[in-house]
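Protein: indole-3-glycerol-phosphate synthase
Species: Arcicella aurantiaca
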Amino acid sequence: MTILDKIIARKQEEVAERKALISAKELEMKGYFAKTTNSLKTSLLNPSSSGIISEFKRKSPSKGIINANVTPEDVTFGYVQAGAACLSVLTDIDFFGGSDDDFLRARKANPSIPMIRKDFMIDEYQIIEAKSLGADVILLIAANLSPQRIKELGKLTKDLGMETLLEIHDEEELNRSLCEYIDVVGVNNRNLKNFSEQNVNASLELAEKIPANCIKISESCISQAETIKLLKSVGYRGFLMGETFMKTENPPKALADLIAQL
Ligand SMILES: O=P(O)(O)OC[C@@H](O)[C@@H](O)c1c[nH]c2ccccc12
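Structure follows.
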């Protein structure tokens, strides 16, 4: 059983528990459901954008606790001040130490920047939930979704006015998963099946295989300005980074220092 299999097995139980507590119909009456969304695509296409998608991440299966001393509002507000193009907030509880509350606190502190609800989406219910939390972008991970499910979840995401980020790790996942409901393609440099990689080779290898009309971003294992420059030179517009910032005492300062070197 891979780590991803374990995460998905637990996610199925979690979604069933959540559905029993509050119905999808009730979610539609709640929170930010009626809020208009902020576009990630528009943000990344802006020539003056840093392209950096800054993540609030407390822990991970591979690293354990990354930072236990910061609040989502301070970190995400600081990220935006420092020049983040977009925010990503983990809501997975069991493996990443996140929560819906983290997302809501970040949303409240930053009403008008695009925000990704970072979780393992397997069910329509979670998309409706994301909308009620005020999410702008939904992550769909090809490694754990069939092409049919990507279409179904992608269509609901679009119907609710949000954007989709399709996460792939190799060419096979790309070819089977790309469909009309995808807004941005993200290459995850880290293999979610074993959390092994520590470099951006996956992004470099896939750059020319992703259709030129797709907006592409590179995810995970990025720490240096030089790497971002290299990824830009092969066509990436976005850079999803968590640990590099979160492992420091002052994540927004780490982002500001990086942007100064770009
Ligand atoms: O902390 P890093 O190596 O900078 O990675 C951030 C982000 O890419 C990573 O958290 C991530 C990418 N895809 C995911 C899917 C689920 C959970 C987490 C992730």
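Remarks: The first strand starts at residue 52 and ends at 56.
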